[in-house]
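On to our target:
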Amino acid sequence: MSFKCVGVDNEGILVLGATNIPWVLDSAIRRRFEKRIYIPLPEAHARTDMFKLHLGNTAHSLTDADFRDLGKKTNGYSGADISVIVRDALMQPVRKVQSATHFKKVRAKSPLNPNEICDDMLTPCSPGDPNALEMTWVDVPGDKLLEPIVGASDMQRSLANTKPTVNDQDLEKLKKFTEDFGQEG
């Protein structure tokens, strides 16, 4: 959510400014920008796309339904808030590896040669897993570590620990500023 301020001079140069606190702009600055446009917080479909965008090419097990669910659950979150959630979720597999007390051997692509399949890659597991080997991540050879991929539970855990940074008071101030000086986007 932000305000975009647009001004054009006689040379054809476009000046664009953005702020989340437009009410602190003095009248001289407001006069120099011909348009003041309110850009609201993203809607559910945009938030859904933002989760996908922030994950990029990172391996994950999220489905389209998972992404839609995240989009619905993040009403009131800004694009920056969603970025924080995704960055935190990307760290969840690292945390799993670091806190694991047991690993198990799995069949997976070699990290050194993606064309080679290894039967002895090690990934974190619960102590109750029938193939569990008691060890910590420091005991696992670097070329044998298979880090878990990011999943829906990682995103949900990060979402539960991340609150939106925009509050109702800020939204009311923006609404009032738009009524007094701005335009809807």
In short: The first strand starts at residue 2 and ends at 8. The two ends are 11 Å apart (CA to CA).
